[in-house]
Amino acid sequence: MTHDGRNDVLRPFPDQRHDHDACRSEALAQVVAACAERGLRLTPLRRRVLELIWSSHTPVKAYDLLDRLRREHAAAAPPTVYRALEFLVEQGFIHRIESLNAYIGCSEPEQAHQGQFLICDSCGDAAELSDPDIAAVLRRKAEMLGFQLDVCTVELKGRCARCETAAG
Amino acid sequence: MTHDGRNDVLRPFPDQRHDHDACRSEALAQVVAACAERGLRLTPLRRRVLELIWSSHTPVKAYDLLDRLRREHAAAAPPTVYRALEFLVEQGFIHRIESLNAYIGCSEPEQAHQGQFLICDSCGDAAELSDPDIAAVLRRKAEMLGFQLDVCTVELKGRCARCETAAG
DNA sequence: GCTATAGATGTAATAATATAACATTTGCAA
DNA sequence: TTGCAAATGTTATATTATTACATCTATAGC
User: Fold this and answer.
1) What is the pLDDT of residues A7-38, one digit of tens each?
2) CB contact, 8 Å: A98 with chain B?
3) How far is A79 from B57, CA to CA, in rounded Å?
4) I want to staple A149 with a disulfide (CB 3.0 to 4.6 A). Which of A65, A88, B148, B158 is the partner?
5) Is B3 among the domain residues?
6) Residues of chain B with pLDDT under 50
């Protein structure tokens, strides 16, 4: 279930007026816990980059992160950001959206997984699915073809329900 | 059926020793026909870029195309290549592989469609599927979520059957 | 507490990918 | 044959990402 009490599968997009502070805090807490469990160092930089990514549900670009980071950390340079992103992606704390060259917080950071993404062209928000039916059909097709499947990139563009409604 | 007489769905990867000249020629001919039908200009530049992309089943990067184009066309510059790519993608004659920043010839250029891609990390080749089951499950999930689906990016990385066999 | 070390960060430069803006040329329709 | 729209040429720049090496910092073993 999501923060607003509705079913995840049916409402992957965050509610327009959801408590985003709580949303971000929860994600951060899960990452803190995962790092403790795995013996990883969530340094101030890494943590700050993660917070900035979680500032919204819109995928963030590396250089936008860099600009924001520089306001509070003059030494920030491209490698600063890319290293933090690399760490966060490797650990499954964020995902990279290939078709946008952008990054978004993972909604289930505690266990590694491969999600699928719905990306609204209208509001820019992205929602993560972990849909077993999609995963299963991809696995099945790959297997039929003798293809040893490793990474699945599934990025679906369109218009989210909220924007669709708003547009009438 | 493919050029080697086997079922497409079961063998999307080209045979190692397939007649690639014939493979490329067929694709070119289909594009020529589609352009004639749609009243589009397949200029020498566009045609040449398409030929270069079809020189293998490995997705090609824009600047690799540029390097090759320059050998025979001194005036070639980034916009030369990107414009040709834009035309070819818009018309569905090639596809962009988002996770590689690279381009590959479309195996069914006559009708617009959205494929799915299997990309072998070992040999680099990519194969296109037009799998109705994958398309259907994505459509169904999007609909359940009230998401107005537009573009589907499905890129599956792993190891193709040939490389899997070769690796023992 | 020291100190060696691995991991993290700083710093400068550059590589790789892509687009903007405007000039010129070309194909084709009126 | 000429005028326009589309295509290409040309220069510059924007955006995204990595390399290479220097320095700092946390911490494990002494």
Assistant:
1) 444 567 887 778 889 999 999 999 999 999 99
2) yes
3) 34
4) B158
5) no
6) 1-9
